[in-house]
Write a structure and sequence with these properties.
This protein is of the alpha/beta class. About 25% of the residues lie in helices and about 40% in strands. It is globular and about 45 Å long.
């Protein structure tokens, strides 16, 4: 699985002009399943995300996790994270899981997040979404688990 984390002071996902998921301070998690991914890979990625120390402590050092600060998670599916841009000018997306598998893994990832973290909002798999965010820092961290 591939994830792109953005530390945010706020974030929201709109579909057709309606807010479907929003958080205050926390992490916007863009996530993409790959064909060989399993629920175990998703659990490993989620565990790392929840423990990643990218929030400031009293001294201003990145030493706290999203759990430590009580931040929210806004989890949004984004197959374009698997883009292959090595050839030509049009990216290829064969590195992303097929839609049925991608949706199942995304849904399971969200369910696991809701079991392990109190503040979880989402977008909608496969929808045309507009993501609004205020990147705090800015802090943007790519992650990959296999």
């Amino acid at each position: 699985m591939i994830a792109l984390l953005q530390r945010v002071s706020e974030a929201r996902v709109d579909i057709a002009g309606e807010a479907v998921g929003q958080i205050g301070a926390g992490l916007l998690v863009l996530v993409c399943a790959e064909p060989e991914d399993t629920e175990a890979v998703g659990q490993k990625l989620l565990s790392k995300i929840l423990k990643l120390r990218i929030f400031a402590d009293e001294a201003g050092k990145m030493n706290r996790s999203v759990q430590d600060v009580g931040g929210g998670l806004l989890i949004v599916s984004q197959f374009t994270l698997a883009a292959d841009t090595r050839g030509g000018n049009r990216p290829g997306f064969t590195g992303a899981a097929p839609p049925a598998l991608g949706e199942a893994l995304y849904d399971r990832f969200v369910a696991l997040a809701r079991e392990q973290h109190p503040l979880v909002a989402t977008g909608r798999f496969g929808a045309d979404m507009q993501v609004h965010l205020v990147n705090d820092g800015p802090v943007t961290i790519p992650m990959r688990m296999n």
